[in-house]
Each structure stands twice: as C-alpha cells, then as structure tokens.
Amino acid sequence: MNEALQKNYEIEQRISSILQYFTLFAIFISCLGLFGLAAFTAERRMKEIGIRKVLGASVSSIVTLLSREFLLLVGIAFIIATPIAWYAANRWLESFAYRIPVQWWVFLIAGILALAIALLTVSFQAIRAAVANPVDSLKTE
What is the pLDDT along the chain (141 residues), one digit of tens a residue? Predict the structure, then answer.
C-alpha cells in the first residue's frame, strides 16, 4: 500500500517539475513578446515623445505614458485569469484525500508579480525612448 501511494506522489512530483519548466518557458516567451511590443510602440510614437520632450515633459511622465497601457492589459488579463485559475486549482485539489483551501492571497501575489515583470520588461524600452535625443526623432519634420 505504501509503495502504491509513493508511486502516485512520484507522478505528481514529476508533473509538478515539468509544469514548472513549462511555466518558466511561457513567462520567458511572454516577456519577449511584451518587450517586442513595447519596442514597436516606442518606435511608432517616437515623434510624439520627441515633441513632448521639447515641450518640457519629464522622463518619468513619458515612461508612465508608455507603460500605462501595458499595465492595464496585464491587469485585465489578471482579472480574467483569476477565476479560471481558482476553479482549476480547486478541481485539482479535490482529487487528494487531505484537501486544503485555495487562499486569496496566492492570486494577489501572482498578480503583483505579473505586474512587476511586465513593468520591468516595458520600462526598459520606455526609459530608452524617454532619454533619446528629441532632435533625432524630429529631424525629418
């Protein structure tokens, strides 16, 4: 009986480690996509950023301008994903003999981490666009 039970938990541990690797891979790919999207947005709005800088905008206001829409999208994704993840976690935990409740703070921490990762990814491009020389972007006008 102990061996059969141990075998079941070994399968769970193997699945857990595989899911951890795929999760890290998915986060990496999503950060690359977010980085590319931020670079594209910064490049597309380079003239606007140049005009704002000439008119006296600070670096922090430009970074906020570029980061706000990405953080809003991550927030919307968090709101959509939280009930789905809660349901999936509860269904998975029902299969165990000793059940534990899914705590709300786990989702809060995950949302904060997702926002922090998105902010770090986007802020690099936003800061680079904000400190660029506005003359270079407005030369063709």
Answer: 888 878 878 888 999 999 999 999 999 999 899 899 988 988 888 888 888 888 888 888 988 988 898 899 999 999 999 999 999 999 988 887 787 888 999 999 999 999 999 998 888 888 888 888 888 777 765
Residue 25 corresponds to which tokens in the numbers above? Answer: 């891979």
Is residue 38 within 8 Å of residue 70, measured between CB atoms? yes
Domain ranges of the chain: 2-133
Choose among 11, 52, 51: nearest CA to 138: 51
Q: Does the reported pTM lie above 0.85?
A: no
How far from 92 is each of 20, 70, 80, 87, CA to CA, in Å?
Answer: 16, 32, 19, 9
Radius of gyration of the chain (CA): 22
For the chain, where are the alpha helices, taking DSSP H only? 2-44, 46-54, 59-93, 104-130, 134-138
